[in-house]
Amino acid sequence: MGDEPEYVREKDDPAERLLALTLVLLSSARGLTKEELYRSIRGYAMAIEGGTSEKALEKKFDRDKDDLRDCGINIDVDNTEPENPRYVIRREAYVWPKGTSLTSAQLKLLNLASQVWALASLSGQAKHAITKLKALGTGGESAELIGYAPRIRTHEPSFLPISAAQAQKTVVSFDYRKAGTDAIETRTLSPWQLINLEGQWLVLGWDHDRSEARHFMLKRIVSRIRTNDKDDSQDFVSPGPGDLAAAEQSLNEHTAGQVAVLEVDRDSEAWFRYELDRPGVASDGRLTINFTDLYLFAEDIREYGASVRVISPKALADAVREGFEKVVDAHA
Q1: What is the pLDDT of residues 203-229, one digit of tens each?
Q2: CB 134 within 8 A of CB 150
Q3: Residues 6+ apart with CB under 8 A from 243
Q4: What's the rounded mean pLDDT across residues 277-286?
C-alpha cells in the first residue's frame, strides 16, 4: 500500500475556466444563475470541493468577469427575476456591422481563429461544463456548442478553394462568364485578396493572361477552381508595395460611382432584405444604393419580382426588364 502514488488534485487552468465560462453563457438562451455556473464549470466546482469560502469564490468569479471584459466580452446581468439574477452574454453585441470588409491578413487570422475555437470548444473544461448543464436541465437551444467553429459564410463555392490558394500562394484557373454576355473564358490568377463589396464577393489578384492586376466576381465563376501548383510556367505573382491598396481604391471608386434608386413595396421580402424596417430609415420605400456589377445587381432585383422597381439608372432598369423578357420568351 505504501508504494501507491499519492493522489494529486487536478489543477484549475484559469484560461480554460474563462473559455468554459464564455462557451457556457453563449450556449444558454436564457442565461445562468451564479449557482448554476458554479456547479457546471469545473474550475468553480473544484474550488468548492477544495473548501474555498463563498467570499473567495465570489472574488474569483468577479475577477473572471473583469478578465473577460478586458478581452472585449461583456457578461451582463438579467434582473427579470431580482431574487434569482441570471448572467448572460448578449450575442447581438458580436454581430458585425453591415458593410464590414476584411483585408487578406485579417481573413487568414479569422480562419486560424475559427480552428482554434473549434479545438478549444472540445477541451475538457468546455465538455464538462456543457455536459453538466444538460444534466442540470439548464442547457439552452445551442447547448451543442462543442466543436462549433464560427465561419465566414458565403454561398459561392469558389470562396474556400480561392481562400486556400491565397494562403498557400498557389496559382489558380477557372472558367469565367463575362459581364453582360454568355461568353465563357478561362482565367489564370494569382489570388491576392478576397473582399466583399455591397454584398458581392470578389477576388483581387494578378491576371496571368493580361499581365495586370484585376478583380473577378466570384458569382461569375462557373467552374471548379483548378490549381496550377505543378505547372512551373505559372509562378505565383505576389503584390508589390501599394498594389493591394491601389486595387481596393479603384474598386471602391467604381462602386461609389454606381448608384441606383429603387422603389420597394412595404413589408415585401425586399423591404426586409434592404433593412427598410430599421428605426430612423425613411419609410417611403425609396432606396438609394451603391452596386458593383450592373448585371449581377439586375439579377438580384429580379428575384423580388414586381415588389422592386428601378427608378434609375436607365441601364439597370433595362437590364432588369430584359431579364424578365428572356424568362417570358423561354416559357412562351
Answers
A1: 999 999 999 999 999 989 999 999 865
A2: no
A3: 192, 213
A4: 70
Q: How confident is residue 50, by pLDDT bands cut at 50, 70 and 90? A: confident
Could you tell me the pLDDT band of residue 233, with boundaries at 50, 70 and 90? low
Beta strands in 97-209 (DSSP E): 172-177, 184-197, 200-207
Spatial CB neighbours of 5, under 8 Å, sequence gap ≥ 6: none
Q: Contact at 8 Å (CB) between 70 and 5?
A: no
* Contact of 41 with 21, CB cutoff 8 Å: yes
Q: Which range, of 71-85, 219-233, 249-263, 311-325, averages the lowest pLDDT?
A: 219-233
Instruction: Please give the single-letter amino acid code of residue 327.
Output: V
State yes or no: pLDDT of 81 exceeds 60. yes
Q: Are 244 and 194 in contact (CB under 8 A)?
A: no
Say whether 227 sits in a helix, a strand or coil: strand
Cβ–Cβ < 8 Å for 156, 201: yes
Query: What whole-number distance in Å separates Cα of residue 272 and Cα of residue 266?
Result: 9
Domain ranges of the chain: 14-136, 159-240, 259-330
Residue 246 phi, psi (nearest 5): -65, -40
Contact 27, 145 (CB under 8 A): yes
Strands ordered across the beta sheet of 308-312: 286-290, 259-264, 308-312
Residue 106: predicted pLDDT:
65
Please report which confidence band the pLDDT of residue 144 belongs to, taking 50, 70 and 90 as the band edges: very low
Beta partners for residue 288, in sequence order? 261
Q: How far from 235 is each of 108, 131, 187, 190, 218, CA to CA, in Å?
A: 21, 50, 15, 8, 22
Report yes or no: 10 and 46 within 8 Å, Cβ to Cβ: yes
Q: 14-27 vs 54-70: helix axis angle to the nearest 10?
A: 80
Instruction: Compare 150 and 288 and report the one with higher pLDDT.
Output: 288
Q: How far is it, in rounded angstroms, from Cα 7 to Cα 303?
A: 67
Separation of alpha carbons 97 and 107, rounded Å = 16
On whether the CB atoms of residues 193 and 203 are closer than 8 A, the answer is: yes
**Local structure of 242: helix, strand or coil:** coil
